Structure formats: C-alpha cells, structure tokens
Amino acid sequence: MIHMKQNQTTRLFTFQLLISVLFLLDVSIVKSQTIITREVPTNITQPERNNTAFYTNLTDTRPTEGITASSLLLATDSTALSPVIHPPSKKTKLNRFFQTAIDETPYKPHLTSLIVPTAFIGFGVASLSINGLKNLNLSTKDEISEHQLKHSNLDNYSQYVPAVMVYGLNALGVRGKHNFKDRTVIYLTSQLISGAMVLPLKHIVKEVRPDSSNNLSFPSGHTATAFSSAQFMFHEYHDSNFWLSISGYPFAIFTGTYRAINNKHWVGDIVAGAGFGILATELAYWVHPRINHLLFNDNKTTSATLMPFYQHKQFGLSYAKQF
Predict the structure, then answer these.
(1) Which of 37, 43, 166, 306 is the 20 to 30 Å CA partner of 265?
(2) Please, which pLDDT band fits residue 8 given cuts at 50, 70 and 90?
(3) pTM over 0.90
(4) CA-CA distance, 116 to 118, in Å (whole number)?
C-alpha cells in the first residue's frame, strides 16, 4: 500500500512538472523571435576636400527587405566614412483617448504560440474517452482524498490576480505594451472569447464533477480565466521584462491545482481549461485592431487645409482634405 501511494505521488508531481516545462517552453519560443538587421554596403565616393567646413548627409534609398538604410556623415577633417545605423521604427501613433504613443503593429499569432494551447485542449478532450487518462483522473482524485488536503476558496480570486497585477504595475509606473483603454478592451475580449468556448462545451459534454454536484465539469472555467489572465500579463510585459511577464503563471497554476483539491474538476478539465484560456488571449490580441477600429475609430485619421489663392487676376479659396 505504501509503495502504491508513493507511485501515485510521483506520478502527480511528474504531471505538474510537465505542465510547468511546457509553459516555459512556450514563452521562451515567443521571446526568442527577434529581428536581425544588417548594414547595406554603399558605393559612395568621398567629395573633394576644401578649406570650408561642410557636412553632407547621404542616405541609401534603395528599396531593401528587412535591411536598414545607413547614413554617412562627411566632414573636412574626417579621413573615413562614419556609418550611422538607424534602427527600424515600429508603427506608432498618438492615441486620442489617453494621448500616449502606442504600438499599432497588428499582432499575428505564430504557429509556435498555438502549440501549448492546442496540446492542452487535446489532452483534455482525450481524457474524456481514453482509459489511461481516465485512470489518471481517478487516481489523482483518490490521492487528494487520501491526503485530506484542506479545501480553500482562494481559487475564486487567484484567477484574476495576473490581470490585477497588470493594472497595478501600470499605476505604479511600470508601463506595459498598451494604454489603459486598449488593454481593457483586450482583456474583456479575451474573457468573452473564453466564455464563448467554455460555457457551451460544459452543456454539450455534460461531464459529472468529482463531487457529483452537477454535470458541468468539462472544461474548467476558473482555470480558463486564470490562464487567460496570465497570458494577458505575458503579452503586456514580455517585450520589456521577460521574468515579470511570466510571474502570472504561478497564480494560474495555483488556481488549477485548487480546482482539483476542492474536488470540483478532474485533471483533464483543468488542463483543457488552461488551453482554452491561453487560446482566448491569443485571439483577443489578434482581433484587437479590428475591434478598436469599430469601437473607437482610432485608426482613421483625416486632415483638411483651407488656403486663399490668387491666379489669373482672380481671388479664391482652395480646400484639400486628406484621408
């Protein structure tokens, strides 16, 4: 009996370790995607020197893909060309809602960012029918019952902690990727997408909870909210502080773990909920430019000019409008 308990404990901790490794792998892959630039060689002949000091700025204007143009600064006392590399600039504009510069480059989910949520959802769906995964659900429940772990309602609150951390850090001056309005729209969108996936599945699958309280066990809604919040924090800070960006995942893992300890969900429900939560946030960042345009019309900019003119002995006004 003791040997059996040790095997079950080892299996449980191995499973939790696997989840953590997959998360670190996912965020590491996203972090490692960088832009590589190189200097364009230019064939520029140095002008003849004279006694008058002068400066000439020469820029290579040839169209290049993924390559930055280089400017050369020439002076009378210089003996060689001195290249100045201009880093590629992001597409930004002044947001009219809060008057802060924001990055408007549309977010496109990479296939690598969809590996983990797809794997988690697949694991959860498989646990509904594959005997080996069903046995994992039952053995985990038995292990928790034998250790008589204390129930807690903290999972009702920990699911929102990563999102609260994002707003708290911004209030303290640690700015994320988006301003207040944009990150609020993104977070609310992620919760709507998550709910649109999770709630119908609960009524379609009708899996009985471990405590037999109802048949709305699959997938875990608490876990979906927790991991969508953690993924939200990751997106807001992974460009500026990688370790800060992943600090929301421990709260998400805590939420999922206590859904099992509280006897409310099977392991498969929790893993699937994590996958749906991550996927919902990825989709929310992807559709944000379209939603932002529909709600606030921030991407539409116009300018108009009214000028007097005199031509052929006639006065008039010219009006020009740029869309």
Answers:
(1) 166
(2) low
(3) no
(4) 5
